[in-house]
Design brief:
Layout lengths: L14 H17 L4 E5 L15 H6 L7 E5 L3 E5 L4 H7 L6 E4 L5 H8 L5 E4 L6 H13 L3 E4 L4 H5 L12 E2 L2 H4 L3 H14 L4 E4 L2 H8 L1 E2 L12 E5 L5 E3 L7 H7 L4 E3 L4 H9 L4 E5 L5 H9 L3 E5 L2 H7 L3 H28 L7 H13 L4 E4 L4 E4 L22 E7 L1 E3 L2 E2 L2 E7 L4 H18 L2 E3 L4 H13 L10 E3 L8 E6 L12 E4 L2 E4 L3 E4 L2 E7 L10 E6 L17 H18 L5 H10 L6
Helix pairs in contact: 4-5, 11-12, 14-15, 14-19, 16-17
Length: 610
């Protein structure tokens, strides 16, 4: 289930096959009276990872990246991808049929506005399009003099003859000791929030939030234990869980029956219409809810409240049981990571290791815990210049040897039933240059600044983000990604709504788990990222303090590579933090590993000498 897989460009549909499929789609569009159609890389829930039956973009174009949008017109077509995927898209797609358009140059909406012929009817699937995206498309089509048309039934599905069936992974119940709160109590909290916000009902369109609310998990997508499902929660009365009944055993159904009605997903539209009748206000999650549901609410005479789901903040603030599970998962994962780091230190200097070798080895150490459910995302394993590609995904085509006197960046995570992990370490193979040590230490200083931060209740991630950048800024350097994202408890490794970034406006709250991952990337040379997960906890009690203070507790337990550190650049306080952290790693991880790894760990966590 979780064997490492490395995609090659040849794994996708050959360009000629993609061209044939484009012809089939255009014929289908002509039958429907459409002049064009939008194909996003999305499912009805806007999931980060989608099941094979929703990989319409890959089927049509051959492009297998995780983000992209195709726009097909009668005489031309384009695929818009971000900077991570311009080279991959050009290799996988028939560029004679599809123009590969970098997102930095134009958005899908701008492309549509400049290419859609006047009077043309451009179709989109309202199940795969959010309200905000639909509005942008409508404005673009109107500006071009065209008409935006919501289709009934996706045209791609009509010509995708061997489309996989929807997933039917069994649903499991969350262990009450790990959940820490009953589903009934969670539903009660959600209904209280609906009353406070004067909402009559909530549609939960994000399966992560459905899983959290009802204390269930599944296996319908890779890397995240999701049961694809929906829920409708009224301000009062019984909620309804919309899920394919074939996923439910009798035991699971019996456990859910006392707290919710269970219905097939095909009944969702009608239920939403009934909830909206009489002018009721229904909240839709603006990030995940399909535009089709907004149309159904308005057609029934209801009012759409398009905003943040109240479940999101509840889910983000973990309770004591969830946090204890996360701590246990990180101790277990730290032991596996220590075994990998010790192995790497022995094998890398010999030569012969590749990026794929490293990923396979790390995954094997995690698998040997006996309780690994899955990896939490495709591992990023970048040697030398590949480490400078922030979202690099190693493939058989790009697999690079790990060479002496280079940096190696490994960003990976695991799913255990008691918690989700995400950790990045940058490792020195041989000897690091003075420049490498300078950059590594500046990144480490930023990491320590976040880990040591004390801040008032109500502080947002945007207010903390510069802590991680200040020492890079002092040298005229920076990194072009956020400093941290939220992480779920045996759910998504990328969880909202809070984050540490320049645009992170949500206040941080006790119990949130966020990553702390500043970096530096020198194109064509090397990349550095140092990532731990942090829990937001109560801050120190300070005499005379006028504000309630918060701070971070570090979850991740893994040594930083001392060979990358320039001690002269660290302050006494930073060295004290690093030594204390390493002493904690040794104390908590040392008893969990074999004797050779323990010896390696003792050296790796020894106090840093100036």
């Amino acid at each position: 289930m979780f064997d490492a897989k490395f995609q090659t460009f040849a794994d996708s549909a050959a360009p000629a096959l993609g061209t044939a499929r484009l012809k089939l789609l255009r014929e289908e569009l002509e039958r429907r009276g459409l002049d064009g159609f939008l194909i996003p890389r999305a499912d009805a829930h806007q999931n980060e990872y989608v099941p094979p039956c929703d990989e319409r973009l890959a089927w049509l174009t051959g492009f297998t990246g995780s983000a992209g949008v195709a726009l097909v017109l009668r005489d031309e077509a384009a695929i818009v991808v971000d900077g991570r995927y311009t080279l991959q898209a050009a290799a996988q797609v028939d560029t004679a049929s599809f123009a590969v358009v970098p997102l930095a140059e134009t958005t899908p909406e701008r492309w549509l506005e400049t290419h859609l012929p006047a009077g043309a009817h451009f179709g989109y699937d309202p199940w795969l399009t959010t309200v905000d995206s639909e509005q942008k498309l409508r404005r673009a089509a109107s500006a071009a003099g065209g008409v935006l048309v919501a289709v009934d039934g996706n045209p791609v599905d009509a010509v995708w003859r061997d489309r996989p069936a929807p997933p039917l992974a069994p649903v499991t119940l969350r262990d009450p000791a790990l959940a820490g709160e009953s589903a009934a109590d969670k539903i009660g909290r959600v209904q209280k929030a609906l009353g406070e916000q004067k909402l009559d009902a909530l549609v939960i369109s994000d399966p992560h939030s459905v899983a959290w609310t009802f204390n269930i998990r599944g296996g319908d997508v890779n890397f995240t234990p999701l049961p694809l499902s929906w829920a409708l929660i009224p301000r009062s009365g019984r909620p309804t869980l919309f899920i394919d009944a074939r996923k439910l055993s009798n035991a699971v159904r019996d456990a859910l029956a006392p707290i919710a009605e269970i219905a097939e997903p095909v009944l969702l539209e009608r239920a939403v219409e009934m909830a909206a009748a009489g002018g009721a206000t229904v909240r839709l999650d603006q990030a995940t809810a399909p535009a089709l549901l907004a149309a159904r609410i308005e057609a029934a005479g209801g009012k759409v409240s398009n905003g943040v789901s109240p479940v999101a903040l509840m889910q983000a603030a973990k309770n004591a049981a969830e946090l204890e599970g996360m701590r246990a998962a990180h101790r277990r994962d730290g032991a596996a990571l220590a075994r990998f780091l010790a192995w790497f230190d022995t094998e890398a200097p010999k030569g012969g290791l590749t990026e794929i070798d490293a990923v396979c080895a790390l995954e094997s150490f995690r698998r040997e815990t006996g309780v690994l459910k899955d990896i939490s995302f495709p591992s990023i394993s970048g040697a030398g210049p590949n480490g400078a590609i922030v979202h690099y995904r190693v493939s058989e085509a790009t697999n690079r040897p790990i060479r002496p006197d280079e940096l190696f960046l490994i960003d990976s995570g695991a799913q255990y039933e008691d918690g989700t992990t995400d950790v990045t370490r940058t490792l020195v193979v041989g000897t690091a240059s003075a420049e490498m040590r300078d950059r590594f230490t500046r990144v480490l200083k930023g990491h320590i600044a976040i880990a040591r931060a004390v801040f008032p209740l109500g502080t947002s991630g945007a207010q903390l983000d510069s802590f991680a950048r200040q020492h890079l800024w002092a040298a005229g350097l920076d990194f072009d990604h956020g400093t941290g994202h939220g992480v779920g408890a045996y759910l998504s490794v990328h969880e909202g709504p809070a984050r540490i970034s320049k645009v992170g406006t949500v206040p941080l709250a006790r119990g949130m788990v966020l990553s702390n991952e500043p970096g530096y990337y020198k194109t064509g040379a090397y990349g550095i990222r140092l990532e731990n997960l942090e829990i937001v906890v109560d801050g120190p009690v300070i005499e005379g303090a006028e504000r309630t203070l918060l701070a971070f507790e570090t979850l991740t337990l893994a040594p930083f590579d001392r060979r990358g550190i320039e001690p002269a650049l660290l302050t006494a306080e930073e060295i004290a933090w690093l030594d204390a952290y390493h002493a904690r790693v040794q104390a908590e991880i040392g008893p969990l590993v074999d004797a050779p790894t323990r010896l390696w760990l003792e050296a790796a966590t020894a106090p840093l000498a100036r």
